[in-house]
Amino acid sequence: MKVLLLLLPALLTVTSASPTQGDEPGVSVAKKQQDINHLLEKIYDRLRHPELVEAATTFDPEGDLTMYTDGGEAVRRLMSEVHQQRLLQKHHWFSLFQERQREEALMLFDVLIHCNSWRCFVNNAAYFRERVNEGQFVYALYVAVIHSDLASHVVLPPLYEITPHLFTNNEIIQKAYTAKMTQTPGRFNMSFTGSQKNREQRIAYFGEDIGLNVHHVTWHMDFPFWWQDSYGHHIDRKGELFFWVHHQLSARFDNERLSNWMNVVDELHWEEVISEGFAPHTIYKFGGEFPSRPDNIHFQDVVGVANVRDMIILERRIRDAIAHGYVIDEEGQQIDIMNEQGIDYLGNIIESSMYTTNLQYYGSLHNTAHIMLGRQGDPKGKYNLPPGVMEHFETATRDPSFFRLHKYIDNIFKEHKDNLSPYTWEELEFPGVAVREIEIEGELKTYFEQFEFNLINAVDRSNNVEDVEISANVNRLNHQDFTYNIIINNDNEVDVLATIRIFLCPRADENGLEFTWDEGRWHCIETDKFWRKLSVGENTVTRHSTDSSVTVPDPPSLETLQRRADAAVEGDQELHLEEYERSCGIPNRMLLPKGKSEGMDFLLMVAVTDGEMDTNNDQLDVTELGGTHAHCGVRGHTFPDRRPMGYPLDRRIPDKRVFEQVTNIESTFVKVFHNTQH
C-alpha cells in the first residue's frame, strides 16, 4: 500500500524539556515581547534591531551547551545541517505537510524548546533567523512561544500581518508593491475569492475570514500532529479535541449556509466527483501562484503521496474498527472504544498524530487527504506546481472543499458516536437543580463591518525607497454584544458547583422543514461553557457574550505590540496584555451565525450539570483558565471538563422526552437577525 504514512515527522530523538524551565532574573515580559516583535518584523529581510543583529553575528549556539536542557543534542543536530547546507534555502515556500521541510522546522523548534533561559531562546532565534527558511522560522518560533514556559505571557502578532501573502489575494499584494514604489500610501479593499456566478461565494466571508484562518492555524500549533510528550508535557484528550474543534467548524459552516438559504454541506467521497473547483487568487511570496482546481473532477492518484484506492482502504479499516468497537495497537492488542475514551483514540488515528495507536495499519487519513485535495490541480507533478491551499493550515478553510472533507471526517466520528448508548435520565439529571428561565438581554443581531490590517510586511525593505503606509480593508462578520440571564434554582441544602453549557441550534433546514432533536443536535454550535457556584435557593447567572470560553478578541497589531512593549520597557512598567495571550479560539465577533434579515429561528439550550463530577479543577468558578478552554484546553494541563466534548448533545436522542423530563436542561426559541444596512 503506497500511502504517505510519514505525514508525522521523522522521529527526532529528543530528551524531555523541563516543564518548569527557569529564567534569568530581570527579564521582563515587556522585554520578551519587544524581542519577539523585532524577530518577526519584515521576516523576508535581514534583521535590523542592533541587539538581534549582534546575536545573529556573534552568538555561537554550540559555545555553551549547559544553556540547553538536553545538553545541546538538538542544537548540534541543527548546526550539522547548517554546516552541510542541507536545509531548505531562503526565499522558498514552506509547507508543514512536506515531510523534510517539517523535519527542518522542528529541528529549530527543538532547539528553542530546550533553552533554559530567555537569552538562550532569543539568541538562537536571532542566529537561525538569518540562516533558515523564513516560513520554517516563523512556524518554529510561533510554536515555541506557544509551548515554552520561557515565553509565558508573550503575545504573538497576528499571522495575517507577518505573512500577509497567505491571507490576501494577489491583486492586493501587487497594489501594495505599487504603492511603495510610487511612494503613495494606500488602503486597498480586499474582495473574496470568486464571483456571484459561484453560489459558494455567498459564504466566502466565513472560510476566508482572516480571524478564522488564524484560529485554524493556531489550533494546529497548540495541538500539532507531530507533538511528542518528550517536548515537555502530554496534551490531554488531543484526539477528542481534534474531533470537537473540526466538528464545530463544520457545524458553524452549515449554520452559515442555512443563513444564506443553502443546504448543509455534502460530504466528500473518494470515488465521486469533486463538484466545487477553487481558484485561490493567492500568491506565494516566493514560488508563484497557488494552484487552482477545476469544477467536476474525479480524485486522481497523487504521485509520491497516495492512491485513491489506498485512501478507501484506510477509511474501511477505521469504519471496521468502529463497527467492531475496538482498535488494534501495534502489538495486535485490541483497545475498547465503546466508551467515553473511544473518541480520543479515533481522533488520534484519523488525524493522525503521534498518539495514534497504529500508524502502519490505520495510516493518516486526514493529513493525507489534505495533500490529496491540494494536489488535484497537478496530481502527477507534471507542472511542478507549489502546494495548494489545502496544504497550509493558514489557507485551507478558503477552499469550500475543506468543509466537504471535514464533513466526511465528521460523519466517521458520528458513526462512532451513534454506536454509543443514548444518555439516560440518570446520566443527564442534576438532582435538586432546575433551570427556570433563560433570557437574552440585547438583540441577537449580526452585521458586516470593515476591518483594516497592515500590509507593510508584504513588501520588501529597500535602502533607496522608504516604506509608506499600506493596509487592506476586508469585510467581516460581527454581532452586537448581548448577555445571558439564566435563573437557576438550587433546592439542595448546600451550595453546589455547576457547569453551565450553552448551545445554539438551527430549527429548520434550507427548505424550512424542522429538524428532529436527533437531526438538529449535530448542527448545534457551542457558544459557551463555564462554571458557577450556586447558592441555596434562586440564582440569577449573568454571562456576557464577550466572556465566552469558545472565542478570543481581535489580537493587537504588530505596530500596537511594538508601541506598548517599547513604552513598557522604557518606563519599566507592566505590559498587561493578558486577554490576548491565546490566539486559539473562534473570533468573538463570529460567536453568532449570520442569521437572516427577517430573523432566523434557533433553539437556545442551556444544560446545567454537576460541576463536582464534571471538573478537574477546584477553581473553575473563579478563573477561566486562559479563556478559550472549550475548544483549546489549558496548555500543559488536563482538559478542565471531564464530560465528553459536546455533552449532552454528542449522542443519539431517539426520544426527546428524556431531555424534557430533567429539570436542569432547558431551552427557548430565539431569532438571529442580520442587519444589511449597518
UniProtKB/TrEMBL annotation:
Pfam families: Hemocyanin_C, Hemocyanin_M, Hemocyanin_N
Gene Ontology molecular function terms on file: oxidoreductase activity
Signal peptide extent: 1-17
InterPro entries named in the record: Di-copper_centre_dom_sf, Hemocyanin/hexamerin, Hemocyanin/hexamerin_mid_dom, Hemocyanin_C, Hemocyanin_C_sf, Hemocyanin_N, Hemocyanin_N_sf, Ig_E-set
Source superkingdom: Eukaryota
Chain ranges of the Tyrosinase copper-binding domain: 399-410
SUPFAM superfamilies for this protein: Di-copper centre-containing domain, E set domains, Hemocyanin, N-terminal domain
Keywords attached to this entry: Signal
Family: Belongs to the tyrosinase family. Hemocyanin subfamily.
Name of the molecule in the record: Tyrosinase copper-binding domain-containing protein
Lineage, uppermost ranks: Eukaryota, Metazoa, Ecdysozoa, Arthropoda, Crustacea
